[in-house]
Amino acid sequence: MKPEMLSPAQKSAYDWFVHAADLGNIFHCWGASGRGRTTVLKCLHEKLGGKLVSIRDFVELAQGRHPLALEDALYALLLDALKQHEWVIVDDLHLATAPVGDCGHFYPRSGFLDSPMNAIATYVIESNKKLVLGSNGNLPRPLRERCYAYSIDGFQPEDYQHLCNQFCGQPASDVNFQKVHRFAPKLNAHQLKLACEWLKKTREIETDSFIGYLRSQQLASNVSLGEVANVDLSELKGVDDVIASLEAHIAVPLENDELANELGLKPKRGVLLVGPPGTGKTTIGRALAHRLKGKFFLVDGTFISGTEQFYGRIHQVFEAAKNNAPSVIFIDDSDVIFESGKEHGLYRYLLTMLDGLESESVGEVCVMMTAMDVGNLPPALVRSGRIELWLEMHLPDPSARTAIIKEHLSAAPAPLREADVPALVEETDGFTGADLKRTIQDGKALYAYARVNGEDQISVTEQYLKAAAAVRESKGKYAEAVGRANEAHPSRPPWFSPFSYSEFETSETDD
Fold it and tell me: Positive or negative, the Cα torsion across 499, 505, 509, 511?
């Protein structure tokens, strides 16, 4: 393994360790999987000599020992190598220490690892040996406190290009790696290699095919598109202003990376979709899921608040979105999550995201929330500056209802298409898009019922009008039930309390 094989980020790490070789005794090379840590350590081994210890060496040695003496096996492995060599380079140390470290809850000697590692560190320093440790970032405390450390940072476009040239066996001159990096800035070498191998066998390797492959793999999104109805934003009727805003402030910055880079465009950080049930808020989420694919992350009713898994799943989604930025986190029915007033952790998390304080990548994550009742959202969360785009989903007007009804009728079987559309439009005043869909579906069921009962000269329009009347009656009962429920169990989140409001406002900074 020659240094010329290293990407720029990997070469920087290699050069640092070569320069630091005479400055200390214990060194730590760390980086996430796929950053080339093993490759760098192999190059160092060729340069410096000594012994390269792999996780395989540990596994083979541990096989002959008691399962409750894994740290003893690691100690023996390292000490034996150090006694025989001036330089010892250990790769994937975290894989060996994980089962016996502080987080190894099921290992009876959990936490005992510090003792043998302290002995190793002392031996290295007193005998003036050299120990290089490679891991994903975790080291036992005695080693961590005595080492010089260098991390292999995330790849830049030039790293993508260097690695892909190697994986392709020739210069990938038809790929704009600046564009690929803007689309997916957190790829590792494993993912780049898979892309190159796939494209070599299936199609020409150029920019569009490369990005197309990345889109097809949904490298980060937590949404299975096969389980999401395939809809398009253009299918929503009567909300042209909302669609135009979403296109301008979300779709364009995410889908047109060259233009976004040229003009310095970023998706809005905070977007709130407000409207009654059935007006298309969730439909917008479905459309964006298909539109953005790997750039779309969903938090919905399957994330059950109040459970021990809730914050873990939320954290995973937010971290994946940040790693895949620019991206969209879509929080459906956010008012339902917050109405209990107990999700303080998520509340503070969102404040940090919307303020863009944590890192540069956070500034490229759009948090889009839907809500029926804005009154259940914390006031500080929806104040100006955090919600940059406020979109209201309103009930369809006569023109929109006409378009929606015609669209549903056109998809119906031939006997059910000929209906008096103006009469239906007049009868469905105040209906949502979901109400209109239900009206047509129920009308078809009533028509079928009439035919089964042998009725002659059935009026299709009459069946639809009956269905509309039934839907309106159900809506009235629903509204009445909600009113009674609110009277019986009135709730007001604690952030509205004058005694607790200041507690939640501590996250804000004075403008």
Answer: negative
Q: What is the pLDDT of residues 439-463, one digit of tens each?
A: 999 999 999 999 899 887 789 999 9
The dihedral region occupied by 50, where left means phi > 0, alpha psi between -120 and 50, and beta the remainder, is left
* CA–CA separation, 186 and 181 (whole Å): 8
Q: Do residues 188 and 32 lie in contact, with contact meaning Cβ atoms separated by under 8 Å?
A: yes
pTM over 0.70: no
pLDDT in tens, 370-411: 998 888 788 878 776 788 899 999 899 999 999 999 999 999
501 domain-assigned: no
User: Which strand ranges, in their side-by-side order, compose the sheet holding 26-30?
Assistant: 51-53, 87-90, 130-135, 26-30, 148-151
Residue 120 located in a structural domain: yes
The encoded tokens of residue 122 equal 């002392």
Q: Mean pLDDT of all residues in the chain?
A: 84
What angle, 0 to 180 degrees and rounded to 10, lies between the N-to-C axes of helices 157-168 and 8-20? 100
| Domain-ending residue, one of 394, 429, 460 | 394
Residues 42 and 187 in one domain: no
Looking from the CA of 175 toward its CB, the CA atoms found within 13 Å total 30
What residues make up the domain containing 343?
Answer: 225-394
Quick one: 261 and 298 in the same domain? yes
